[in-house]
Design brief:
By secondary structure, this protein is an alpha/beta fold. The chain has two domains: 198 residues, FAD/NAD(P)-binding domain; 127 residues, FAD/NAD(P)-binding domain (3-Layer(bba) Sandwich). The strands form three sheets. Strands 1, 2, 3, 4, 5, 6, 15, 16 and 17 form a nine-stranded mixed β-sheet that branches. It has a five-stranded parallel β-sheet with strand order 7-14-8-9-10, with helices on one face. A three-stranded antiparallel β-sheet has the order 11-12-13, with no helix packed on it. Strand 2, helix 2 and strand 3 form a beta-alpha-beta unit. Helix 1 crosses helix 6 and helix 3 crosses helix 5. The protein is globular and about 60 Å long. 42% of the residues are buried. Bound molecules: flavin-adenine dinucleotide.
């Protein structure tokens, strides 16, 4: 570990959309801050997504504060690479002080400060905002036999496109947007089976990410969130609509066992397959906060707003609705960041 760098008031860990939204408001508040990001290049997790991924909202509803995402030349919903280009331009336009590649290894308490240890020295900060996302912790549920499967298994995070699965038999697992989008394109070239824990719920064509954001906001404000129903899980972006119209978006119940050749259900039915694609989500990437001992049994850090209950000098941005309604989305990052920075300014 090299010598400590100068102390800063606010240190943001993560230069994806959540970290940049925080940077925008910190800049406006004339705060003394830096953003440390582990990636070589701008764009956060979007630079690792499969190329055909489409956002579930049009550009005007997928924007960070201050600058609208440009509508893609092809029209329609922006792709992952459109989003990377937008975020790269965003941090340049607002001259955000992103230092990369710098990986934060640990955050520790040290008297009045938090010490942030990185692979390139340590920083001292009065306030830390952790905005490290989830992409870096793909989640695959355990099923008996999972280690014996002789075909290929991969997670959404490793999926790059349908081409390698041409002519193969593929099981796609998961009932949300990633599974539906991947299934939509795979089903054109491969023999696909879709398995989900509960029947997949496709949103009506006119409903997109904006409606989901508004719903998340209403739920967060309601005294009884359960009283506000869900709209559904899967946004009918054009490739998903097209797959629905081809009749391929029909899901089987979850299998209960994996065999060396495929998957099996409790009624004795089984299916031979060449690959299983786990579109089963991600967990928050919070390993660097382990020394603070803040996580509860469900793996999250309890927060009030975005402030960690057990460490008032730490804020968490993004990750999921538990840090603010839709805070892990492009449209939702803005409001959570604005409220967080307003609170930090008072704290300083
Ligand atoms: P990230 O983009 O993951 O950025 C976090 C940054 O922190 C990364 O650059 C990472 O390298 C860095 N980092 C991590 N750990 C460390 C460390 N220890 N030290 C330093 N840096 C670190 N949202 C939408 O609004 N619309 C969509 O259509 C949409 N589609 C999605 C599709 C998929 C498949 C997924 C997984 C998510 C989707 N989301 C969508 C949700 C969300 O917008 C993305 O997950 C987004 O990338 C979250 O941004 P973030 O800034 O929170 O995290």
């Amino acid at each position: 570990m090299t010598a400590s760098r100068r102390p800063v008031d606010v240190l943001v860990i993560g230069g994806g959309q959540a970290g940049l939204a925080a940077g925008y408001y910190l800049r406006r508040a004339k705060a003394d801050f830096v953003i440390l990001d582990a990636q070589e290049r701008p764009g956060g997790a979007w630079q690792h997504a499969w190329p055909s991924l489409r956002l579930f909202s049009p550009a005007q509803f997928s924007s960070l504060p201050g600058r609208m995402m440009p509508i893609p030349p092809s029209g329609g919903y922006p792709s992952a690479s459109d989003t990377v280009a937008y975020l790269a331009d965003y941090e340049q336009r607002y001259d955000l002080p992103v230092i990369r590649p710098t990986r934060v290894r640990a955050v520790r308490r040290d008297g009045e400060h938090l010490v942030v240890e990185t692979d390139a020295g340590a920083w001292q900060a009065r306030i830390v905002i952790s905005a490290t996302g989830t992409w870096w912790r793909p989640y695959i549920p355990y099923y008996p036999g999972i280690r014996d499967f002789q075909g290929q298994q991969l997670h959404t995070a490793d999926y790059r496109g349908a081409e390698p699965f041409q002519g193969r038999r593929v099981v796609v697992v998961g009932g949300a947007n990633s599974a539906a989008q991947i299934l939509a394109e795979l089903s054109i070239v491969a023999d696909t089976t879709w398995t989900t824990l509960r029947p997949p719920r496709l949103l009506p064509d006119e409903v997109d990410g904006r409606a989901l954001f508004e719903l998340a906001t209403r739920k967060a404000r309601a005294a009884d969130a359960e009283s506000i129903g869900d709209l559904g899980d899967i946004v009918a972006v054009p490739p998903v609509r097209e797959a629905r119209d081809r009749g391929v978006l029909k899901a089987e119940p979850m299998f209960t066992r994996i065999t060396p050749e495929g998957v099996a259900w409790p009624d004795g039915t089984s299916l031979t397959c060449d690959a299983i694609i786990w579109c089963t989500g991600f967990r928050p990437a919070l390993g660097h906060l382990t020394p603070l001992r803040l996580r509860n049994r469900t793996g999250i850090i309890p927060t009030q707003g975005t402030r960690a209950v057990g460490e008032p000098r730490l804020h968490l941005l993004g990750y999921g609705d538990w840090t603010g309604p839709a805070s892990a989305t492009l449209i939702g990052a803005s409001r959570t960041a604005r409220e967080t920075v307003a609170e930090i300014v008072k704290q300083l």
